[in-house]
Design a protein that fits this description.
With 164 residues, the protein is of the alpha/beta class. It contains six helices and five strands. Bound molecules: 4'-phosphopantetheine. The site of 4'-phosphopantetheine (PNS) has 9 residues, from β1 and α4.
Length: 164
């Protein structure tokens, strides 16, 4: 539908965690559609999962919301991507206070680049506020269990990467 409200949820999603999933589902209460957009930078890529693997995992997680959640990737500036996709809103999650400075800088820079684009912040759910992709990878790489912190399909892929 031409008049659907669309929000872009950008990030690295390396990999998607239950914190991200919670944020997408809550965003769907307000917007008709969420584009989960993986930012790629071939020159500075230290990701564990390839872009295709990350897209695949996101699509599997949201099969029941198909049509309302789209997984995509982009290169270049987020503000240009949001414009191309016709979305006036960027969604970002805020966990602890430590997220604030980085998020504030990005929101201000994006606002300067494209003032008509708004960043909406959502507080991460109380059971997900300490989860991050970085910590999840570290824990699994050292043999720890992250069941319950990431979707099942992601857990399997993480364990396969580290051969547990
Ligand atoms: O999940 P992350 O790594 O915290 O997400 C950061 C992300 C992808 C949102 C940010 O790095 C980004 O927007 N990258 C795209 C390039 C860009 O627009 N950079 C300027 C940001 S002010």
């Amino acid at each position: 539908m031409a008049n659907d409200s669309v929000a872009i949820y950008p990030g690295s999603f390396d990999p998607i965690t239950n914190g991200h999933v919670d944020l997408v589902r809550r965003t769907l209460r307000v917007f008709d559609k969420v584009v989960v957009a993986i930012a790629t930078n071939p020159d500075k890529d230290h990701s564990l999962f390839s872009v295709d693997e990350r897209l695949d995992m996101i699509r599997q997680v949201f099969t029941s919301e198909k049509g309302r959640v789209e997984a995509d990737s982009f290169q270049g500036l987020l503000v240009d991507y949001a414009e191309r996709r016709g979305s006036p809103v960027i969604i970002r999650g805020l966990r602890a206070v430590s997220d604030f400075e980085y998020e504030f800088q990005m929101a201000m820079m994006n606002h300067r680049l494209k003032p008509q684009l708004e960043t909406f912040f959502m507080m991460t759910g109380e059971s997900e506020f300490y989860i991050s992709s970085r910590l999840v990878k570290e824990v699994v790489s050292l043999g720890g269990d992250v069941a319950g912190l990431v979707p099942e399909n992601v857990l399997k892929r993480l364990n396969a990467k580290f051969r547990h």
